[in-house]
Design brief:
The chain is mostly helical. It is built from 5 helices and 4 strands. The radius of gyration is 17 Å and the shape is flat.
Length: about 130
């Protein structure tokens, strides 16, 4: 049973969740071994992928739809997705995620979601308690 409540404005859940992700990443409250071995975090996205002004690459304004080709992974000579197991490559999924959520600081979450900063951080800490090993 939940015993802690904090408000969130309707329609702002993605901002709230992105802020939680940023908190977990910045505070290393995740299972790195699992992330590297069992997620797409180390896969490298094609060079023509981008996210600018709220739109991902491949958007066709006339058709109002995306051509998602640029969202694919970069392939090696055998046709397999390239990886960076150190998670240092700027276009690996891990770094693209970090870049994407970097704007969702606790202050931004408070401003957009209406959630008091202290309450938001408390939620993040609760989640972090169960997010990383040890």
């Amino acid at each position: 049973m939940a015993d802690f409540y904090t408000p969130i404005r309707s329609g702002t859940d993605i901002t709230f969740l992105s802020g939680v992700i940023l908190y977990l990443l910045n505070n290393e409250k995740f299972n790195r071994e699992y992330t590297e071995a069992y997620t797409n975090a180390s896969l490298i996205v094609r060079e023509d992928y981008s996210f600018d002004d709220g739109l991902f690459s491949g958007y066709d304004a006339e058709k109002r739809q995306y051509d998602k080709t640029s969202w694919n992974y970069e392939l090696d000579e055998n046709g397999f997705a390239k990886r960076d197991t150190t998670l240092q490559h700027p276009r690996c999924v891990w770094n693209l995620l970090k870049q994407h959520v970097s704007r969702y600081t606790p202050d931004v979450v408070e401003n957009i979601c209406g959630t008091p900063k202290a309450d938001f951080l408390k939620v993040c800490e609760y989640i972090a308690e169960t997010s990383a090993p040890g």
